[in-house]
Amino acid sequence: MKKRSYLLLVMIVIMMTSCEVVGGIFKAGVWTGIFIVALVVGLIIYFITRGSKRD
Description:
The chain crosses the membrane at residues 29-49. By secondary structure, the chain is mainly α.
């Protein structure tokens, strides 16, 4: 399961360029962008802390 999560994260990062992400955020609105960024940062922190506890 751990490898699958990291693989999914890597695939998302590779498939979306930074320009597409930023353009989409500004089209959707600032508050939606802030929510999405906070959600992504939270998920990254969650996966990092979850992975370090099992090692």
